[in-house]
Amino acid sequence: MESPRNTARLFTNFLDKVEDNFIEGFCFPEIDMFKVTGRLSTKKPNIQGFDDTIKKEMTARNGYYMVDTDYASKENRVIAIMSKEQSLIEMFKDWRNDYHRFQSARLNGLLQEQVTDKLRKMSKGLVFGINFGMSDMSLGEVLFGSRSKENARKAAQKREEFFSFQRSVEGWFENNVKTALSKGYSTTIFGSKRFYNKDRVSKSQIRRYAFEPPNPRFCC
User: Fold this and answer.
1) How far apart are CA 97 and CA 52, in angstroms?
2) What contacts 138, CB < 8 A, 6 or more positions away?
3) Interior CA angle at 173 toward 32 and 138, to 5°?
4) Distance CA 122, CA 16 (A)
5) What does the DSSP 8-state code read for residue 61?
6) Do residues 134 and 151 touch, judged by C-beta distance below 8 A?
7) Residue 199 and residue 69: Cα distance in Å, rounded?
8) CA 78 – CA 48 distance, rounded (Å)
9) What whole-number distance in Å separates Cα of residue 15 and Cα of residue 7?
10) Within a 10 A sphere around the Cβ of 90, how many other Cβ atoms?
11) Under DSSP, is residue 210 helix (H, G, I), strand (E, B) or coil?
């Protein structure tokens, strides 16, 4: 049985939007491609937020197949190239390597084959938290389940351990933040600039936003 929180999320993200953008059984969500972070989002309904409760009810039309695909660590591959982090570049050359399992193995002093699903999940949470500019407090909540000074301290330690294996990535991130704070904009890998209104956006927000435009996931 779904928890009250998850049930409320189902109604907010999906069920109460069904009549808006569903036509004869087909879903036509609204797409916002101009977020300040450079990412896109969907609404009415939020198809990016579907969970298994909704997904299992979705089927392909007769005579068609429905396929769900995703890039394999696309943003981390480009970060490796842009930062010139040789250890990651070499890792990605072998298609058999799993990025999150590789990172977890380094963090825990294990072979990739020894990394459990639980350890891989924690490594994935750490990677995405760092990639998208989470504070230590927010990262601590993701990794350890609650917001507290102790969990923030542990998250900061995990962050330092992560960068200790890849200082080039750390330097690349820091340079992106420095540019955003000093010049008021971030530059994507294709040369587009995303400007920040310093009168309306705090330094902490700019620091967080600065991680995303250089990231190839949604930049243009």
Assistant:
1) 27
2) 129, 147
3) 65
4) 33
5) P
6) no
7) 40
8) 23
9) 10
10) 11
11) helix
Cα separation, 209 vs 177, whole angstroms: 9
Could you tell me which residues come within 8 angstroms of residue 54 by beta carbon, excluding any fewer than 6 positions away? 10, 14
Residues near 124 by Cβ (< 8 Å), separated by ≥ 6?
100
Backbone angles phi, psi at 75, to 5 degrees: -65, -35
Report pLDDT for 4: 66
Compute the half-sphere exposure of residue 124: CA atoms within 13 Å on the CB side of its CA. Answer: 13
Q: What integer pLDDT is reported at residue 17 of this predicted model?
A: 62
Mean pLDDT of each 10-residue bin along the chain, 220 residues long: 65 67 75 69 75 77 83 85 93 92 94 94 92 89 92 95 94 90 84 83 83 53
Q: How far apart are alpha carbons 54 and 6 in whole angstroms?
A: 12
* The predicted structure's pLDDT at residue 84: 93
The DSSP annotation for 105-119 comes to: HHHHT--GGG--HHH
Burial 55-86 (b: 16+ CB within 10 A, else e): eeeeeeeeeeeeeeeeeebebbbbbbebbebe
Rounded Cα gap, residues 16 and 26, in angstroms: 16
